[in-house]
Amino acid sequence: MNGIPLPGEFGERARAILSGRLAPVPARDAATVVLMRDVHDTDGGLGDAGALEVYMLRRAASMSFAAGAYVFPGGSVDPRDADQAVAWAGPGPETWGRVFGADANTARGLVCAAVRETFEESGVLLAGPSPDTVVADTTGGDWEADREALIDRRLSLAEFLNRRGLVLRADLLRPWAHWITPDIEPKRFDTRFFVAAMPPGQRTRDVGGEADEVAWLRPAEALGRGGEGRILLMPPTFRTLTELAGYGTVDAVMACEREIVTFQPRAAEVDGEMWLVLPDEDYRMP
């Protein structure tokens, strides 16, 4: 069995939910973005196969969900993310809805949350002055003030983009996966995963907040650190890294045709002990 033991209060909570004595917490819509870049050799060409890197954050120990885990940028959908005032380029909400099995309004919120959370947690903005351009630089005090206002919810994504005359670039995103937090968790998310290439000219920065460390890592390197116990990887992150480790370049990932399958780990009692059972045997956790 591919799973994780649930000791103590986690096991008791799982038993209570399985028996019907406790109702699961509703899952909130959320979006996660795997931001990628290619590693180039000293001559400026692409490195060896597997040279692709992904941007990861270590969640601060004070966080109530996945504290200390290495994750990709992401977070819950803000109700204002579905604002139709957002200027939009690329596949429309209906298209994203068909891919992710959601209605158009939910899909709009998911795509906007993906763009907003990426900017909040990395400083990278998937938007531009026109439908075929992207912002070249997001550094400087005015950008930082807007980023902090978005985090504090003093500013909505639509207000931010419209004030700057920017178009959301949905075409820079690709769908990757769909994970739902197990019923037994006290904080749950219905999360759609996206992948995106690092826009030319932009750069990530240590933005603080929910994360206390950021790093660009090759997927295989991150998996190796996880296997050695040097970093903590949650099952969705582990599986995503395992999948991406099979690609050599960002272009190869972006060109991949994905069938989005929903994964939701479940609790089960095995020989009197409670376990969190992972979706399949193909991506066995270390």
TrEMBL record:
SUPFAM superfamilies: Nudix
CDD domains: NUDIX_AcylCoAdiphos_Nudt19
InterPro entries registered for this protein in UniProt: NUDIX_hydrolase-like_dom_sf (IPR015797), NUDIX_hydrolase_dom (IPR000086), NUDT19 (IPR039121)
Keywords associated with the record: Hydrolase, Magnesium, Manganese, Metal-binding
Cofactors (names): Mg(2+); Mn(2+)
Every Nudix hydrolase domain range: 26-239
GO molecular function, one term: hydrolase activity
Matches recorded under PANTHER family: ACYL-COENZYME A DIPHOSPHATASE NUDT19 (PTHR12318:SF0), TESTOSTERONE-REGULATED PROTEIN RP2 (PTHR12318)
Annotated protein name in UniProt: NUDIX hydrolase
The organism of origin for this protein: Sphaerisporangium corydalis
Higher taxonomy: Bacteria, Bacillati, Actinomycetota, Actinomycetes, Streptosporangiales
